[in-house]
Amino acid sequence: MGVRSLAWDRVTAHSEELSLSTGGDADVIDITGEVQRVVTEGPIGDGLVTAFVRGSTAAITTMEFEPGGVADLRDLLDRLIPVKGDYEHNRLNHDTNSHAHQRASLIGASEQVPLIEGRLALGTWQQLVLIDFDDRPRDRTVVVQVVS
Ligand code: ZN
Q1: Interval between CA 36 and ligand 1 midpoint (Å)
Q2: Residue 107 CA to ligand 1 centre (angstroms)
Q3: 86 and 92 in contact (C-beta within 8 Å)?
Q4: How far is the CA of 14 from the centre of ligand 1 (A)?
Q5: Could you write out the DSSP letters of every residue in 26-94?
Q6: CA–centroid distance, residue 27 to ligand 1 (Å)
Q7: What angle do CA 67, 143, 58 make, to 5 degrees?
Q8: Residues in the chain with pLDDT values less than 50
Q9: CB-CB contact of 54 with 144 (8 Å)
């Protein structure tokens, strides 16, 4: 696609909130289609798209969304930050999901993707995913914002 530049004399933004139900326990949900839909229905063709999940036990990243990749990512996080551990958050708050908070912080609550001529500039084998690390099913809000 090469180089494409625009001269901006004002900033415009378009936002929409997505509501998703998850199963928790590192449920990985492909949100690429929904994010692209928000972009397509909005007025902005070129800019920067942010997908941000509210809450401190979920994350958004990109990956190749296929069963092997999902299983390997979940295994990695199980090794890195086990569900069971000697965690202060659980002790101090009588909680059970410190692992979920830590995993969410590590991966991050948002991802940004360039928007070029109305399309998310993702690779063919690269999807935007929401991962819910909490230890129970949750209703999540993903804020999608396009800025140009
Ligand atoms: Zn907690």
Answers
A1: 32
A2: 17
A3: no
A4: 32
A5: SEEEE-HHHHHHHHHHSS-SSEEEEEEE-SSSEEEEEE--SHHHHHHHHHHHHHHS-SSS--HHHHHHT
A6: 17
A7: 45
A8: none
A9: no
Q: What is the pLDDT of residues 87-114, one digit of tens each?
A: 999 999 999 999 999 999 999 999 999 9
Residue 118 amino acid letter? G
Structure tokens at 77: 């996080």
Pair of tokens at residue 17: 């909130």
What's the whole-model pTM score? 0.92
100 C-alpha to ligand 1 centroid (Å): 8
- Ligand 1 centroid to Cα of residue 88, in Å, is 10
Length of the chain as a residue count: 148
